[in-house]
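Researcher: Let's do a round of design. I'm pasting the structure tokens now; please hold your answer until I've finished.
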């Protein structure tokens, strides 16, 4: 009899430990899921993710302290898991709804009272609503973290109740299960859930949460108060999860559309980033305007992308002595490549991290409902450049791919670096002196390298840091130029040569462009090297960006936060 009781107790204990491990994995996925989504809607990727994780860890600690106020551990643990599953399942849609409401409220008021189109209400209450929406991911993270923090103390009390004594290694056993479960959850997030639609990932996680809660209920339902009500709520939540599984992606897409000025025609969460394509019809008699957003930030608009890409490509190509072998780093939309191909190169090598970007801008993607090709206009825009037989695409981290090219002793006549702004530490390394030094070894003696260098007006310190960093990497001549791109504002580039004359001197010796452009002229190209009086005086106080100091990332983050009004600088 005693052996039977011991076996039953061990099985009960094993069930509790497994449930704890499963819930720890769910908790970590909820943490990553909320951080990931918050970064998408707030924009400051790295800052937002770190802030969210920090807030949830602190709130979990507070929740652990608060758990002592709960009397019946069995009842409270069962209902706690139900509440965590509910919030985990719906948090993304709640946040998206708040953002949608804050973005559309001024227009709703304007339409209700017949205000002129250029007179949307703002200030006061509207600012409060917008700020509340911006803080809502952190509020949701705090609440969810607070509830998750209660799990371990309640599980500890449940184990001691089962054994009817204080357990010497209780904390160690529970924390061991918690750490292992969290580690498995992290692996599942990275390997599987990161590429899922955010609402689908939430459904899967909440479903596992519900299964663990149901297993607990089945075993200990006699110890749980309000047992019939709990079971009914459990069934309702399962039905809610099925609804979100079927409709959640559509709802999220509709709500997400309010974050953009235009209609979202395509949205995808790839393994590395969130992509959104928008469409705007200005006039039925003119072509629609398409824009690409990555993690909520504009990458190009078809309205003026030629300004950006002609400025990026043609000064460097014009200054290069030869145009046989070209290296493009980034530029997965194929628009820079379109301009490069005008120079009839023999070979073009492209380094791109995200295969999904390449696929979207090179392969037809059908809309099952309408039967139309969603991305036809974008394929026309890049003139199917990504299908050119001279193109060789290498997928992976450019920092590592450069090493492969160096080992192969490759040399390129022109190197074009068209990467997103350094808004993340992983991108920051691709703007470091070490990276530019590696790139320099791939550049032929008479070649030219050009780097997109963010805004010289809105992010001046970041712009100057890029120029100074390229100079520190050992290039003979480093210059910067700028031009206004309406979608971005004032924008800048850095151009460098290894030997011989500077790029500008070479351009001055070229009276005309040898390729067809839609906007750029030789005179405009040369004039873009002129900056306002004393513009570069601040350079001596600007840091060189290295792999260790993240100076550029910090400059860029500070500038972006000031632009968004996240904080104000006072004199």
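Researcher: That's everything. Go ahead.
Model: Designed sequence:
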């Amino acid at each position: 009899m005693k052996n039977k009781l011991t076996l039953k107790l061990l099985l009960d204990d094993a069930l509790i430990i497994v449930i704890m491990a499963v819930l720890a994995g769910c908790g970590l996925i909820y943490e990553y899921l909320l951080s990931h989504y918050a970064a998408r809607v707030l924009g400051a990727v790295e800052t937002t993710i770190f802030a969210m994780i920090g807030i949830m860890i602190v709130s979990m600690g507070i929740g652990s302290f608060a758990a002592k106020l709960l009397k019946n551990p069995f009842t409270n643990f069962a209902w706690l898991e139900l509440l965590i599953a509910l919030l985990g399942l719906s948090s993304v849609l709640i946040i998206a709804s708040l953002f949608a409401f804050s973005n559309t409220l001024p227009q709703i008021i304007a339409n209700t009272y017949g205000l002129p189109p250029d007179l949307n209400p703002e200030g006061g209450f509207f600012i409060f609503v917008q700020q509340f929406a911006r803080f809502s991911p952190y509020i949701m993270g705090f609440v969810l973290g607070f509830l998750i923090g209660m799990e371990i103390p309640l599980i500890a009390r449940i184990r001691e109740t089962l054994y009817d004594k204080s357990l010497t290694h209780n904390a160690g056993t529970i924390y061991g299960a918690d750490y292992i479960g969290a580690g498995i959850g992290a692996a599942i997030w990275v390997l599987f859930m990161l590429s899922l639609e955010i609402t689908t990932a939430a459904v899967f996680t909440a479903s596992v949460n519900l299964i663990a809660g149901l297993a607990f209920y089945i075993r200990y339902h006699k110890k749980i108060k309000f047992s019939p009500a709990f079971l009914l709520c459990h069934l309702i939540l399962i039905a809610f999860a099925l609804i979100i599984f079927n409709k959640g992606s559509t709802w999220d897409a509709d709500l997400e559309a309010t974050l953009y000025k235009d209609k979202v025609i395509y949205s995808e969460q790839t393994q590395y980033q969130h992509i959104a394509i928008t469409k705007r019809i200005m006039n039925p008699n003119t072509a629609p305007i398409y824009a690409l957003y990555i993690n909520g930030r504009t990458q190009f608009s078809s309205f003026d992308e030629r300004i950006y890409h002609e400025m990026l490509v043609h000064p460097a190509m014009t200054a290069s002595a030869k145009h046989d072998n070209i290296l493009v780093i980034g530029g997965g939309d194929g628009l820079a490549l379109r301009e490069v191909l005008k120079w009839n190169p023999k070979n073009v090598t492209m380094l791109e991290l995200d295969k999904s970007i390449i696929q979207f801008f090179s392969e037809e993607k059908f809309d099952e409902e309408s039967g139309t090709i969603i991305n036809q206009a974008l394929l026309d825009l890049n003139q199917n450049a990504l299908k050119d037989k001279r193109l060789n695409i290498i997928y992976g981290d450019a920092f590592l791919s450069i090493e492969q090219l160096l080992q192969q002793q490759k040399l390129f006549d022109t190197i074009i670096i068209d990467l997103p702004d350094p808004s993340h530490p992983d991108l920051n390394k691709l703007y470091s002196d070490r990276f530019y030094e590696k790139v320099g070894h791939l550049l032929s003696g008479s070649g030219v390298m050009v780097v997109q260098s963010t805004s010289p007006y809105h992010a001046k310190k970041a712009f100057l840091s890029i120029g100074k960093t390229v100079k520190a990497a050992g290039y003979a001549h480093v210059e910067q130029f700028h031009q206004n791109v309406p979608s971005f504002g004032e924008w800048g580039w850095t151009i460098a040569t290894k030997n011989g004359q500077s790029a500008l001197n070479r351009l001055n010796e070229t009276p005309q462009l040898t390729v067809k452009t839609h906007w750029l002229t030789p005179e405009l190209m040369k004039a873009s090297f002129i900056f306002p009086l004393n513009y570069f005086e601040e350079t001596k106080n600007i840091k060189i960006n290295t792999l260790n100091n993240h100076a550029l990332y910090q400059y860029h983050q500070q500038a972006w936060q000031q632009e968004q009004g996240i904080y104000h600088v006072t004199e």
